[in-house]
Amino acid sequence: MPAEPLLRIEGVAKRFGPVAALDGLDLDVAPGEFLALLGGSGSGKSTLLRLVAGFETPDSGRILLRGEDLAGKPPQARDVGMVFQSYALFPHLSVFDNVAYGLRREGVARPEIARRVAEALAMVGLQGMERRMPHQLSGGQRQRVALVRSLAKRPSLLLLDEPLGALDAGLRERTGFELRALQRRTGAGFVMVTHDQAEALSLADRVAVLEGGRLVQCDAPRVLYDRPATRFVAEFLGGANLLEGRAGADGAVECPAVGCTLRLPGAAPPAGAAVSVAVRPERIGLLPATDAPRGANTAAGTLRELAYRGEAWVALVATAGGQVLRVVLPGGAAPPPPGDGVALAWEDGANVVLKE
Ligand SMILES: Nc1ncnc2c1ncn2[C@@H]1O[C@H](COP(=O)(O)OP(=O)(O)OP(=O)(O)O)[C@@H](O)[C@H]1O
User: Fold this and answer.
1) Which atom of ligand 1 is nearest to the CA of 56?
2) Residues 42-53: pLDDT tens digits?
3) Ligand 1: which atom is nearest the Cα of residue 46?
4) Superfamily of domain 7-228
5) Rounded to whole angstroms, how far apart are CA atoms 6 and 2?
6) CA triple 120-125-130, angle to 5 deg
7) Where does 239-353 sit in CATH, by number?
8) Which residues does the UniProt record annotate as the domain ABC transporter (predicted)?
């Protein structure tokens, strides 16, 4: 992280009556960084964007853009653009006029407006569509117009609130890639709200996970996925299995709900300590009961449910201890039929010890 972040959020709190929408949040965004804000409904994601854009005022804390405190600065005076899920194009204005709108309001000269609009539309492959009205565009095209409209003023920070939420799955992925390319080309910092974890992981440089108005973890996608800090993050991202146990004198963790012993990577926990461990479903191998391995990180069980998803199988296995574990196998695997006895096995490195 460079010395001066593009955006710095320091201890920001915001209440709406009895609801603490944000509860003392600290977060930095580096210049040119793509940050995703991920969290469940009501976790405070939109409130955070609205505070940065200037549509709401924090109760306490500071918001700095390139070191400048934004307190008291109206939205239009901030070097910040915003894109909403609902496109929010002016229906009675052409594509050209929609993109030119903000530039005209700023008093930019006409030839410069024409140049910037053409450049903006070319960036998202919409050249030649200047005269079209919003209703003559597809959903994906409308969202691209909304995107470049918000970038026409060349803000150093772009806030995006569920920008892909209204698009269907195929278009969502393609527009996501375009968004990413656009971000790289403009060099602007992007902060995107989403509650789609796959979208956050695939597009962002870092993902900030919010829970109840607090930041629970902010890391690169791979780190967040492989090393979730808390139970919430582990469950929210990829539906990890949560195993509870107690450390023995040898450092191994007995897990009665599964009927297994866990061997942890790294330093052994003190004897008697309660330990929570996350194990990703795709890190667990599934074998016929006849090939059951012995020792740590193995469990016996019965295959309860099996679902084919094309690129993967999802299996639910009721373990000897009673807890049901979720296992994801590659689509090319040939799992046994439901009802069969199975054995599960995973490596030490798959055991991620959670802080809380
Ligand atoms: N203007 C408002 N008046 C009253 N309560 C509000 C207002 N705006 C937000 N809240 C409350 O603050 C909390 C956080 O809301 P926010 O919209 O930031 O969540 P979110 O994470 O964006 O949720 P979603 O994913 O559902 O959009 C919620 O409990 C919400 O009901």
Assistant:
1) 1
2) 999 999 999 999
3) 22
4) P-loop containing nucleotide triphosphate hydrolases (3.40.50.300)
5) 9
6) 65
7) 2.40.50.140
8) 7-237
